[in-house]
Please model this.
Amino acid sequence: MKRRQFISTGIKAGIVAGMVPVVSAGHQQQKPFDLVAVKGGEPGAMFDMAIRSLGGLSAFVMKGQTVLVKPNIGWDAPPERAANTNAGLVKKIVALCVQQGAKKVIVFDKTCNDWNKCYKNSGIQQAVTSAGGIMLPGNSEQNYKPVTIPGAVKLKGVKVHEAYISADVIINVPVLKHHSGTTLTIGMKNLMGVVWDRWFWHEHDLHRCIAEFVLYRKPTLNVVDAHRVIMRNGPRGVSVEDVTEMNSLIVSRDIVAADAAATKLFGKEPDEIGHIKIAHNLKLGSMLLDKLNIDRIKMG
Model:
């Protein structure tokens, strides 16, 4: 494993408990990483490295809390097609939350295809239950409650799944991939899977609605699966020929920074993606990666 630190002050130093030592006013202070990017391993192993760099899962999950893990499970497609979040990554996150003493670890998505087939054929249902988590269906409107979005211009109200509303901790686990409507789908767009009436979004400035939903509630942690990535014909893909192996993972508390870093990994710039630029301007996070403390880890 190789690690490189890139710090805006130009100081390079070692890592202690997920912190970067920074010289200030004649003494050292500990400054946490804003984002961790890992390359070259299996998804679960990469998450282990990333969360350790951020101070361990205990920095995010405490004993007795209810945790919602929100992957992309939208499509009835096998794992090799990369239309859904990597099942091994979801399993690792759920297992670590259970080990941390979480009261409940819940996983669900409002799927685009039949939810039973999506849950099963993605491999995520088996992964979650074997790790001690709970799979909830997302197909019943009665589980979605109306909420108001503070400060929104377009998305002033929306029905949100009660699991997202009530969870103590939300771990957002999107898969990076091409999307025909928004160019890319990553962390912010993955949250469309916790709302019922999302066709409103498509009809009323989709990028603006995607960004404004984050005004309601930010995830505690964002984990971008970029192990296998659909490069065209997204979001479902047509065949494995649409997929390339990137063997990468991006983890951050900042959903805007996570999406910005994943965008660059895909080969585009963050300001090319409408909802990333809007969310940055709304001060929901930062797409200015050169201003952030990033831990870059290469495994293998």
